[in-house]
Amino acid sequence: xxxxxxxxxxxxxxxxxxxxxxxxxxxxxxxxxxxxxxxxxxxxxxxxxxxxxxxxxxxxxxxxxxxxxxxxxxxxxxxxxxxxxxxxxxxxxxxxxxxxxxxxxxxxxxxxxxxxxxxxxxxxxxxxxxxxxxxxxxxxxxxxxxxxxxxxxxxxxxxxxxxxxxxxxxxxxxxxxxxxxxxxxxxxxxxxxxxxxxxxxxxxxxxxxxxxxxxxxxxxxxxxxxxxxxxxxxxxxxxxxxxxxxxxxxxxxxxxxxxxxxxxxxxxxxxxxxxxxxxxxxxxxxxxxxxxxxxxxxxxxxxxxxxxxxxxxxxxxxxxxxxxxxxxxxxxxxxxxxxxxxxxxxxxxxxxxxxxxxxxxxxxxxxxxxxxxxxxxxxxxxxxxxxxxxxxxxxxxxxxxxxxxxxxxxxxxxxxxxxxxxxxxxxxxxxxxxxxxxxxxxxxxx
Length: 446
Known about the structure:
The protein is α/β, with parallel strands linked by helices. It contains 17 helices and 10 strands. It has helices at 15-18, 28-36, 66-74, 90-101, 113-127, 133-152, 162-174, 189-200, 213-222, 233-236, 256-265, 301-308, 312-337, 339-359, 369-399, 403-413, 438-443, and strands spanning 2-9, 41-48, 52-59, 86-89, 181-185, 205-210, 226-229, 242-245, 271-275, 292-296. Strands 7-6-5-8-9-10 form a 6-stranded parallel sheet, with helices on both faces. A 4-stranded antiparallel sheet has the order 2-3-1-4. The protein is elongated.
């Protein structure tokens, strides 16, 4: 079985391109079914966050262009996105998945939210039957690797998130959040994280708005804030200095005309918007209105980068763990996948032995039963001794992920493939000084 991971993320594309492939939660099940119906696809799962849309799949042969299929379903022409899309196969796909789960591929290095999002995607896909034996094993291993990284390194110490970076940005803008009023639009996980950080930074008042008002009330009560009905956000917004928004809306909630009205009510006092939603909640044109300042999720990247230096040593340790675990997973899978080659080799040798015995049958008719048994044992012994070294080479090559030897053995004996490897077209993993390609460790492990 072949593994494919294809997608687009914050490293390969700006937010205006990522949001084209963002999937509404209510459409996720249908989108997954569409991918599962692609010929050759055995299992699949979609991971959709504010920073990435990725499709993980196991397939039989003839690698499908699943992101194009997803684009067709969403009504998006992915040809314009092709230069931003990465297609990873085999150990590249495995290592990338492990890096994502371990938050080594996140905008904020070490943030814990992506592992939860990965687990949620797994549970959703498994519940609808699109994740079976192969991806289940891969994802369970990814979760174990993430736990190993958290346990053996300090990559997650003083955990930060996109929400905390957004609050840091607000603090940089104002110098202090004391006496500042903030409105959170969206009471999901991001809103909760933002509320926690706002309180730590001394925000004077937190207003919470959500389409489901009960969720806004719960979050506001948890943090000593005030709930605002979603239909009242435009009336309430002029009262606050900062709006942090993270909803699942598919259209802009705040537009330039809203901003102008807010400023007029505020007597031209400046107002800041931090948009951490994908698709974006705030029209980018709002940033052109004098007195309004907008920062989207990509604008947070420069602040997130400042956290990287403090975690560089831990990140390098974590990358080593991930690369080694990817190699271990591949070796285990190849050891299992080489079994059909060994069985086929034994079967062909046995067919050849039987053929030669039939050809010699006329010359063996005078043998006694005891002699016939001796000939049978002799030919089997010769066959097994001949097969011993080739089978040992196959097992060793599989255990060491030595694809060169496996290819030579497959060609020499005309055997079925143990595992097809397809080169990656665009690497989403190679950015960052700490990234260690598993194939480099693999080359040095022979």
